[in-house]
């Protein structure tokens, strides 16, 4: 039996996600303190793609220990048929998309992709990230007031991801537009474009990205280079490679999971460092020494992807609630990252926090973010360059949030980079 919901908290009411962050955090604190897992209906604005269905509602998992428990048991808390939508997708949409697959398919894809990120390539990517950070900050520093999201936070991971995959500069703007559209699923026309036909826009973006990488992949079979696409389409040591559809699914996952999340983390990072000047001063005094703890704290603080879904494969108890086969649970990483039981002074932004058992990159377990190391590197590199070239950098106004219950994005953030 579901527990009685707290009457004034409805996570499925789109208006809940328009509340100021402090009010939402207060609501999650009350949910964490209440027994069991509260149940919510499918949100009225949930996008159901043609051939898919809304399906049943979901149980909200808000406590850190319950999120960990679910992720430790991927055999019961499954990522298929979708880990990032409440609605069930059309059959086949997530074939090849490792974040929404379970073993053995997940393990096969994760192995092929992980092999493409061998230590030599990681070292090359790190050097390229540092060079991009220096070039980008060099261009924008000293230009006066600007929008941090469009001038810095978006171009940086966009360029890094495209460079990693070998996508030419002429396609970068299109990649970003598709990423925004898929990420917000029609809930924020100002960010994701057309709200008149959001399903068409989302499917169109999937197809655009799939076509782009299919063309590049085919070319790379004949003309290998040192990019990740080349490694994915050519047989590795075990003779395994990705099919065209799997390559497309991986590229779309990278674009959404690698670009949008990092944009949000960078923008929340600037906002947090401006609001907590003593934390900025601490990090500024030791940019390299604090790079990893500060990056982790920004990811905990921001939690760019606020929840992931699991679907229950067999009867199980979680957080005091009995769940049945087919039940959906949303693991609220954003709430777990503020759980007073897991973090001392959870509401304090502390760039030296250690240990920091945040779940902003998911985990523990098999779906732990494949790009966590690179994402931390991106955050460390970008802020190190800002400390070096534009030490007085600050946000000069309020962030404009992206409208979404899933993505804690920032659409724009005025700043001065001096
Ligand atoms: C601050 C930036 C980032 C955040 C907050 C983030 C967050 C996450 C989270 C929460 C998951 C786990 C999803 C789940 O529990 O089902 C995940 C998975 C994943 N992330 Fe990231 N991510 C970031 C950056 C990146 C980057 C830069 C890349 C690529 C280089 C990347 C690639 C992936 C992939 C491929 C997965 C799927 C792993 C799997 O299912 O085995 N992410 N990410």
Characterization of the model:
- By secondary structure, the protein is of the alpha+beta class.
- 47% of the residues lie in helices and 9% in strands.
- It has 15 helices and twelve strands.
- The strands form four sheets. It has a five-stranded mixed beta sheet.
- A hairpin with an 8-residue loop joins strand 10 and strand 11.
- Helix 9 packs across helix 11, helix 11 packs across helix 13 and helix 11 crosses helix 15.
- The model has no long low-confidence stretch (mean pLDDT 94).
- The structure holds protoporphyrin IX containing FE.
- The site of protoporphyrin IX containing FE (HEM) has 27 residues, from helix 11 and helix 15.
| Total of helices | 15
Oligomer: single chain
Distance between the termini: 57 Å
Instruction: List the strand order in the largest sheet.
Output: 1-2-8-5-3
What is the number of independent domains?
A: 1
Rg measurement, Å: 21 Å
CATH architecture: Orthogonal Bundle
Q: How is the main sheet built?
A: 5 strands, mixed
Bound molecules: protoporphyrin IX containing FE
Strand content: 5-15%
Task: Give the overall shape, derived from the CA principal axes.
Answer: globular
């Amino acid at each position: 039996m579901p527990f009685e919901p707290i009457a004034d908290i409805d996570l499925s009411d789109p208006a809940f996600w328009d509340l100021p962050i402090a009010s939402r955090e207060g609501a999650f604190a009350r949910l964490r303190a209440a027994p069991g897992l509260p149940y919510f209906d499918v949100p009225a604005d949930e996008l159901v793609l043609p051939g898919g269905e809304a399906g049943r509602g979901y149980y909200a998992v808000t406590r850190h220990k319950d999120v960990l428990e679910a992720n430790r048991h991927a055999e019961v808390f499954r990522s298929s048929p979708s880990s990032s939508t409440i609605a069930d997708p059309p059959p086949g949409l997530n074939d090849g998309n490792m974040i929404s697959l379970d073993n053995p398919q997940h393990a096969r894809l994760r192995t092929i992709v992980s092999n493409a990120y061998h230590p030599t390539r990681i070292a090359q990517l790190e050097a390229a990230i540092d060079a991009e950070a220096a070039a980008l900050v060099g261009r924008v520093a000293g230009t006066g007031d600007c929008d941090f999201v469009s001038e810095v936070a978006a171009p940086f991971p966009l360029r890094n991801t495209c460079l990693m995959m070998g996508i030419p500069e002429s396609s970068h703007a299109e990649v970003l537009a598709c990423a925004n559209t898929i990420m917000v699923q029609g809930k924020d026309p100002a960010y994701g474009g057309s709200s008149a036909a959001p399903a068409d826009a989302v499917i169109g973006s999937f197809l655009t990205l799939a076509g782009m990488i299919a063309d590049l992949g085919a070319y790379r079979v004949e003309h290998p280079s040192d990019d990740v696409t080349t490694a994915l389409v050519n047989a590795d040591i075990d003779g395994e490679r990705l099919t065209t559809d799997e390559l497309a699914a991986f590229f779309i996952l990278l674009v959404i999971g690698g670009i949008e999340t990092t944009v949000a983390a960078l923008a929340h990072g600037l906002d947090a460092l401006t609001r907590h000047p003593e934390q900025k001063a601490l990090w500024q005094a030791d940019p390299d020494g604090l790079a990893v703890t500060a990056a982790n704290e920004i990811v905990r603080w921001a939690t760019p992807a606020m929840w992931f879904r699991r679907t229950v494969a067999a009867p199980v108890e979680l957080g005091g609630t009995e769940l049945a086969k087919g039940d959906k649970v949303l693991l609220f990483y954003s709430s777990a990252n503020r759980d007073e039981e897991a973090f001392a002074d959870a509401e304090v932004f502390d760039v030296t926090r250690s240990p920091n058992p945040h779940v902003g990159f998911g985990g523990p377990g098999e779906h732990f973010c494949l790009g966590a190391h690179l994402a931390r590197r991106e955050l460390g590199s970008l802020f190190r360059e800002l400390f070096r070239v534009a030490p007085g950098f600050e946000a000069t106004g309020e962030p404009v949030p992206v409208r979404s219950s899933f993505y804690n994005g920032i659409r724009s953030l005025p700043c001065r980079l001096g």
